[in-house]
């Protein structure tokens, strides 16, 4: 019996390790998306190259994390520094994939959580660097959220309560699609309404529409409950950390653009790992 348990644990560990390798590779591709999509460039062509000297990167210099360490964070051709973001995104994606498969096993739910995590990692760093949330990730993510609502059905307590009040008792895939619809629309509408009200009161834009699309994407994966929890956690952490950063650096709070999408993305990762939606 003990040997069987050990074998099961070893199998799960191997599956998680394989997932982490896929995560490292996906993270390498996410770096391309983070750099190119906010600049309206193709992620297919041209092939990977140094952003400073434009020299193509050989396959042996493009191994996730390892190549960065071997090259000591510098381009082989021009010697210019390579951003720390590249190995960080690769490593973070690999760790997330490892943790997800370790927790859920090689299941459709794990695949959903891995895809969701990868999208969020790309959005977090895109917003940090360029204050942009590419439609390819937000709108594309909503489409994927719909697909996973069919492939990996999930339930959502607020959606069930609302449907019950309307006299509807749904289960399985119909409930999952209802959770997708509620999660995609209502939190995004709430955030849009808050931004519209802020603009009317302060007479300046306080929220980009990219953030609204991001919340819709989060809700498409996590449902209404997960999206509302994300909004709450992201708003609180963004306010506290953002205000502290502005104070410490002496920036002008009236002009500084807070990467709110990054806080929402980090909050969504935390909520997903607590079991909502994914």
Précis, in short:
With 278 residues, this protein is mainly alpha-helical. It contains nine helices and no strands.
Helix content: over 70%
**Percentage of β-strand residues:** under 5%
* Mean of all residue-level pLDDT scores: 91
SS content category: mainly alpha
Number of strands: 0
Distance separating the two termini: 32 Å
- Order of SSEs: HHHHHHHHH
Number of helices: 9
Low-confidence stretches: none
Could you give the topology of this structure?
Elements: H1 2-36, H2 66-70, H3 85-104, H4 108-130, H5 135-151, H6 157-165, H7 172-202, H8 209-249, H9 260-273
Question: How would you describe the overall organization of this protein?
Answer:
The chain is mainly alpha-helical. Helix content is 70%, strand content 0%. The protein has helices at residues 2-36, 66-70, 85-104, 108-130, 135-151, 157-165, 172-202, 209-249, 260-273.
Essential attributes:
70% helix; 278 residues; 9 helices
């Amino acid at each position: 019996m003990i040997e069987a348990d050990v074998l099961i644990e070893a199998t799960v560990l191997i599956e998680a390790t394989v997932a982490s390798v896929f995560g490292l590779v996906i993270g390498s591709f996410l770096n391309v998306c983070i750099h190119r999509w906010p600049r309206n460039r193709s992620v297919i062509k041209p092939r990977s190259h140094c952003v400073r000297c434009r020299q193509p990167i050989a396959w042996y210099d493009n191994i996730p994390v390892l190549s960065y360490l071997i090259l000591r964070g510098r381009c082989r051709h021009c010697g210019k520094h390579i951003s720390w973001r590249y190995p960080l995104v690769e490593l973070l994606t690999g760790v997330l994939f490892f943790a997800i498969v370790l927790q859920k096993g090689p299941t459709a739910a794990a695949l959903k959580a891995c895809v969701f995590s990868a999208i969020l990692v790309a959005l977090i760093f895109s917003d940090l660097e360029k204050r942009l949330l590419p439609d390819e990730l937000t709108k594309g993510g909503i489409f994927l959220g719909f697909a996973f609502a069919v492939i990996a059905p999930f339930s959502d307590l607020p959606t069930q309560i609302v449907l019950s009040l309307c006299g509807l008792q749904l289960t399985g895939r119909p409930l999952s699609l209802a959770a997708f619809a509620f999660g995609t629309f209502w939190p995004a509408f709430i955030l849009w309404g808050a931004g519209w009200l802020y603009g009317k009161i302060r007479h300046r834009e306080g929220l980009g529409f990219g953030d609204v699309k991001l919340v819709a994407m989060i809700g498409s994966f996590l449902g209404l409950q997960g999206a509302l929890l994300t909004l709450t956690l992201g708003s609180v952490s963004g306010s506290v950390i953002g205000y502290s950063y502005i104070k410490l650096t002496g920036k002008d709070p009236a002009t500084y653009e807070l990467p709110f999408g990054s806080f929402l993305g980090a909050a969504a990762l935390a909520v997903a790992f607590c079991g909502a939606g994914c």
